[in-house]
Amino acid sequence: MMSPASMTEDFIATDEPVHGLQRLVARFGGHAYDPHRHETYAVGHTLWGAQAFRYRGSDRISVRDECMVIHPDEVHDGHAGVPEGFSYRMLYIEPWLVCRALGRDRLLPFVPEVVERDAALAALIDDAFADFPYPMELLQADAFISDVAAHLARRSDDAGLQRVAALPVDEVAVARSFLTEEFDRQVTSGDLERITGLDRFELSRAFRRLIGTSPHRYLVGRRLAHARSRMAAGEGLAEAAAASGFADQSHMTRHFRARFGITPGRFATLASASQA
């Protein structure tokens, strides 16, 4: 557990995604993130201090031992809510895996209480960090996703109980796999129509209901994950952008800040500090 004396410098540490799951631990003494949104669920546990943020039109705060559940594509920011700052653990989970864990005929669960003292969820999160930063084993990742999906479903509002058997689940799975594999090139709606057999607008609607975001935002998310991994390993920003399918560094920077709430340069500096 962090103490105020140990929270003198901001830092971020992440691992490589395993089976649609990525872990992050960070601490900040003041401003942390500009408004941004993820294409994943963000499930976190505040370890020390107080993390303040704006979410769905309201100011929220998570203090020590409270948990956060942020739904895909919901705009939020982040800053310290007390002078000593805050530290937290966060897991980013692909919504598609939550759907799979709950069964093919369920919509994504929406948890209305974004901040709650939830001992069971905190224990799940802490267990996922037991070997951090060593990679999670695939069996561990599968078990965690299953447990968290069930937990989110129990805390969800009524919308999460709707049945969606009529949606083209298999076709969306094909599109998602294609975008994951082809993230570093230009992908068109025609490409997705050809491999799924669905009209582009039908696919877009189904993709959002099952994945939590649009096909384009999912594609950009794959590019950003690849770029962030390369930057965390010490690669330059321009090189990471070129290797990840972005037109140039400024193109990557615009999307990176919108997705993560910080610039690529600041992320690289914080990631470097965590390894010092």
Automatic annotation (TrEMBL):
Signal peptide: none annotated. Residues 173-270 form the HTH araC/xylS-type domain. It comes from the Bacteria. GO terms for molecular function: DNA-binding transcription factor activity; sequence-specific DNA binding. This is AraC family transcriptional regulator. The keyword Transcription regulation applies. The lineage of its organism: Bacteria, Pseudomonadati, Pseudomonadota, Alphaproteobacteria, Hyphomicrobiales. Keywords: DNA-binding, Transcription, Transcription regulation. SUPFAM superfamilies: Homeodomain-like (SSF46689), Regulatory protein AraC (SSF51215).
